[in-house]
Amino acid sequence: MTTKPSQDLETFANPQPGRDYTIRIRVPEFTCLCPKTGQPDFATLHLEYVPDARCIELKSLKLYVWSFRDAGAFHEDVTNRILADLVAACQPRFMRLRAEFNVRGGIYTDVVVEHRQSGWSPLPPVDLG
Q1: Taking a C-beta distance cutoff of 8 angstroms, is the pair 115, 92 a contact?
Q2: Burial of 1 (0-12, 13-18, 19+ CB in 10 A)
Q3: pTM of the model
């Protein structure tokens, strides 16, 4: 195989740094291991962010997500860790990560974490109705 899991997140220059816009990424194949049982946990990651100077490069994100496959992690911890790593890599104006974990023992878990750059606030919503 020419690629392997990696904790390295690559970025590229935001092509429109003067404008607030939202990037939405859905990762439907996230897996990690339950730290109590060792059984796999499956989740869909929903990432949305308003970039500042840098954007996350998607192939590096794929390899980064893959690096959790054999790692034991509680849902709350792994979601917060992923957000912290993404924020450190690209320093966005705003970033939200929702980890939607599949059912385990009749229980669904969604963990939502956010980062807001100091001094940044979103534009007011536009109602075209």
Answers
A1: yes
A2: exposed
A3: 0.93
Question: How many helices (DSSP H) and strands (DSSP E) are in the chain?
Answer: 2, 6
Q: If you write DSSP's letter for every residue of 67-111 in order, what string do you get?
A: TTTT-B--HHHHHHHHHHHHHHHH--SEEEEEEEEEEETTEEEEE
- Quick: pLDDT tens for 60-111: 999 999 999 999 999 999 999 999 999 999 999 999 999 999 998 899 999 9
Residues with catalytic annotation?
A: 34, 41
Alpha-carbon separation of residue 106 from 75, 94, 103 (angstroms) = 16, 33, 6
CATH number of 11-116: 3.30.1130.10
Domain extents in the chain? 11-116
CA distance 51 to 27: 18
Contact 97, 45 (CB under 8 A): yes
Give Cα 89 to chain centroid, integer Å: 12
| Helix, strand, coil percentages, rounded to 5, for the chain | 20, 40, 40
